[in-house]
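[SOLVED] Need 3D model of a two-part complex

Original post:
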Amino acid sequence: MTIALRWQTLLLPVLLGAAANAWAQVNFDDLLHPEERPGDWLSYSRSLDNQRHSPLTQVDAGNVANLELQWVWQARSLEKFEATPLVVDGVLYTVQAPNDVVALDAATGRLFWTYHHEPDPARTCCGRVNRGLAILGNTLFMGTVDAHLLAIDARSGQLLWNVEVADSEALYSITMPPLVVEDKVYIGTAGGDLGIRGYVAAFDVADGHELWRFYTIPAPGEPGNDTWTGDSWQTGGAAVWNAGAYDAEANLIYFGTGNPAPDWDGRTRLGDNLYSDSVIALDTDTGALRWHYQFTPHDEMDYDSTQVPLLADIEWQGRERKVILWANRNGLMYVLDRLSGEFLLGKPFVEVNWMDGFDANGRPQRVPGMVPTPGGTLIRPHVHGAINWAPPAYSPATGLFYVAHWEHSGIVAIEGQFPQAVGINTRQTTMGDVALEPFLNDDDEAFGVIRAYAPATLEPAWEFNLGNITWGGVLSTAGNLVFGGGKDGYFVALDARSGALLWKASLGGQVNAGPMSYLANGRQYVAVAAGSALFTFALP
Amino acid sequence: MTPRLALCLVLAGGWLGAPRPAAAQHATAFDVVDGKQAFQRICANCHGPDGDLVAGVDLGHGNFRQPYSDEQLGTIILQGIPNTPMPPNPTMSEEQARQIVAYLRSLALSEEVGLQGEPTRGQVLFEGRGDCLTCHRVAGRGSGLGPELTGVGQLRTSAELQESLLAPAARVLPNHRFYRVVTAQGERVSGRLLNHDAFSVQLLDTAERLRSFTKAELREHGFVAPDMPALQAAEYSEQDVADLVAYLASLRGNTP
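Solution:
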C-alpha cells in the first residue's frame, strides 16, 4: 500500500464524513470473487454465476422473526420497480424507472446523488422498466429503454459516456442489467414482441465503443438461418432482455433469448427459429457461439427463455458437474452441462400439456394439436409463464435451487391473436404493477409459490404458497433463509431447509424485484423493492 | 330519450349488424377490424385480450379510469400516461390509434340479442316480486352486496343479462365471488370476496360490513356459490324475463 492510499484511508472519513462512503472501487477480481467482499453486492445476482446467495449470517433462521424496517426510499417514479440494487462500501446504487440512477447511504437511505436520463420516446412491451446496474472501477453501467448504454461516475453521478446500442425508433429497447467481464460490458436488446432482430453486443468499458455483436438470429448463409422461412429472420425477435452469467474457466458468457416474433403465430416463420427461446454460450472475447440449447423450438406461446442463467457445481451421478439450472417459462426445468451444453435432465415443474417428453438429444416432443388454432387450444402454462424473468437463487449450503413461480396457469391459444382466457380455471393473471390489486382467484386457478428443488433430480424439496402469483425473485442467505415476495405485497422469510414461514412484512405494493442483502456499518440489511419504493430491514 | 327509444335504437343497430352510436359516427366496420388486430398485437399484452386485465380498467366494457372522449383515448394510446406502465407508442399512426378506439367503442356496444321487453314492467318486477334491491343497487337504492347495476346496460349485452337471470352461477365474475369463513369462536360469515392472500381474507359481509380475517385463526374458510337465485319458469314467464332484461339494458347511468 502506498503512503498516499494509507493517508486517504485514515483521513478521508474524518474530513468528509458520510460522503467518504461514496468512494467506490470495484475491480474485476472483486466481481469474480465476491466471497472476498461478503458485505457488498457487486452484480445483479451478487455473483457472476447468479446464485443470489449472500454469505451473511447475522440474520438467521433463529432471529429473523425480529427483523425490523430500517428505512424506505420512495422513488419519484410510479412505474414498476424491478431493479436489484448494488451495494459497494456502504453506498447503495439503484434505478428509478425508467432510467434515473440514484446513490444512497446504505445505512440510512439518504441520497448522495441522482443521475437523470430522459429517454427518447420508446416502446417497450411491458412497461418502462430497468432491472439494475453493473459496476467496474468507479463506473456504473446502465442500459436504457431508448436502447442506449450509459457509463456514470459512481462518485459524482456524472455521465462518462453514452452510446446508442440500437435504434429505439426501430422498436429496440433495453431493460436488463449489463454484465461486466474484465474490460468489456455486455448488453442485449429487448423488443422481441415488436419484431426486432435481437443481439448481444460487447462494449469497451473505457469509452463505450462496440467490440463485437452476436445476432441471436443467423443471417442468410450462417448456420441456423434455414430454421426461418422467407425473410422472417429479419424481424424474428429472439431478444435478450435479462441478466447474463459468466464462467471464467470456460471463458463463456451465457444469455437466455426471447420468443420468436410474431409471438402467437408461427405460420410466417416455419422451422425451429434458432436461436429464439434458447440459452446461448458465447466466447467472452469474440462473441463466437460455442453452444446453444433451444428450450422451445418453433414457439407459438411467447415462452421467452430470458430467465436468469444460474451456474452451479452440483453432484451429478457420483461426481461434481458444472451445470446451468434453468426453470423456464415453458413450464420445464433443466439441468445442462455449462461447458458443453449437453442436456442432462429436464422435466415439468408445473402442469404442462404442450409436450410429453424429450428425445435423446433433449428436444421436447410436442403433443400433436397443442398449438394455437382458429378455435383456440387450452395450453399450459400461461403465456406469461410458469416463471417469467424473476431471478432464482441457489444455496451451496443446502444444495437447493430456489424458484418463485406460478402454478395451475393456462391460456387458450388462438392462431394469430393474443391468447385468451377461458373458464375460471384459466383466469388471467395480470403482469406486475405498482399498486396492490384485489386477488380473487379460486384455489384451482393460478397461484404463486416459492419452491426449493434438488438440482440432481429436479424434485421439489418444499413449497411455500404465496397465494397470489408472483413477479418477484428470491434471495438465499447463509443464515439458512430464503426471502421472497409477490403481487400481494408481502415480503417473507422462509427456512431454507423446510420452507417454514419465519417472518413476513406487508409492504403495501407489489414485489416485482429480486431481494438482496448487504452490510453497512457492520450491520446486515435485507432489501427489496415493492410498489415504487425500496424497503430495507435489519435486526434491532 | 326514453328507455324504450334507447332500447329500440340498440336493437335497430343490432339488426343492421354495424357498430353503433358514437363509434358509428366516424368509424367503419373495416376500422373496427383493423383496430381489433392492432389491439391484439399491441395492447393485449398488458390489457389482455378482453381489455380487462389492468385493475380498474375494462376497455371491452367502456370502463376507463375516467370518462374519456374518443380524442382523449387516441392521445393516450399514442402518448401513454406518464408515471404509469401505460407506454407511449411513438411508431403508431393517428389513424391506427383511431381504429383502436373504434374497436374499443364497438366492444362496449356490441350487439344485443334477445326478446322484446318492456323496461317499465321490468322495473316493477325488479323492485317488487323479484326483490332484487335486497342484494343489488341501482342509482343509490338497494344493497351493495351483489353487483352494482346502475350502469349495467352499458357493460353487458342483453344475452349476458338474460344468462345472469336464468343461470346466475354459470358465469360469476371474479369480483362477484362469494367466500365464507367460520371463526374460531364459531361465527359464520359470508359475503362478497374483496381480496385474499396467503395470510388473510377481506369480505363485504351480508350486512355490508367490511370484514378482515387472518386465515390461520379461522376454523374454516373457502369459496361458496353466490346467493343469487335463478329465475324459475314456474314463477316468471318468458315475457317477465324479457321485461327484466329490457329494464336492466336500460340502466345506463354512471356506475359509482
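Edit: Residues 1-22 of chain A have pLDDT under 50 and may be disordered.
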